[in-house]
Amino acid sequence: MKNFKKVVLPILLFVLLVGILTGCGQSGKTSQAVTSEGSGEFKEIKIGATVGPYSDMVSKAIKPILEQKGYKVEVIEFSDYIQPNIALGNGSLNANLYQHKIYMETFAKDNNLELSVVLPVPTVPMGIYSNKYQSIDEVKEGSSVAIPNDPTNLARALLILQDVGLIKFDQNANPLTVSEKDIIENPKNLVFQPIEAAQLPRSLESTDLSAINGNFALAAGLNLQDALQLENIPADYLNLVVVNTKDLEAAYTKDIREAVESAEFEKVIDEQFQGYSKPDWMKNR
């Protein structure tokens, strides 16, 4: 019995010790698989964007740069403006690109989310399009104008119409929330027809002018350069890269910023996203 204890017990202790050490090693490897060299930062990230120009921007101008930094990037496409923020808030996404500041702040407040801006990106401008007129100067008395029926995009459309001299609204009106009731001059007696934004491209067949969001214009096969007038996008309407506020200082967020601020990103924009309005940080460097 004494010999048995002398031989067997050390072996059992050795096996137990090896098992413990092996378990610890496997636990370390599992953690490493979802972090950046043990730093606690993601190396696999998911970026959400609406189908069309912004998912294209992520795929063509941001994803390749992040992959060079060692990330595995998955681009998740959405067909509505609600789910990208919901998915970001619940952790299904690490970032998204599709919305401007006013929408983000309103959505975050209404849905009890804490979202923060990383930086603005080149944005497809709204434009005034027509199948009838070749220039704003040709617009005749009583012409019909299709405009978005939601408050934010309506204000953008009216700003463009004022910029080209077709209307004038009260100088005390807030340009971000201006509506038809704020119009004080309409010299050509334009007739406004509020329509859901996504349907505006179709309105070209039945109206004289149509103020169309850039993403819907591109989706309908319109050329931005064919617009009678493109908007000078206010800073609050530029689309943004957005993350959860708690991740604003995360390494992957900083890497996304570096990617967007890079010369490679701007080169892709200049070559494949012509006509987009650039944010001031790109214009001024």
TrEMBL record:
A lipid is attached at residue 24 (S-diacylglycerol cysteine). It comes from the Bacteria. Pfam families: Lipoprotein_9 (PF03180). PROSITE patterns: PROKAR_LIPOPROTEIN. It is found in: Membrane. One of its GO terms (cellular component) is membrane. Its main location: membrane. It is a lipid-anchor. Keywords: Lipoprotein, Membrane, Palmitate, Signal. Belongs to the nlpA lipoprotein family. This is Lipoprotein. It comes from Schinkia azotoformans MEV2011. The lineage of its organism: Bacteria, Bacillati, Bacillota, Bacilli, Bacillales.
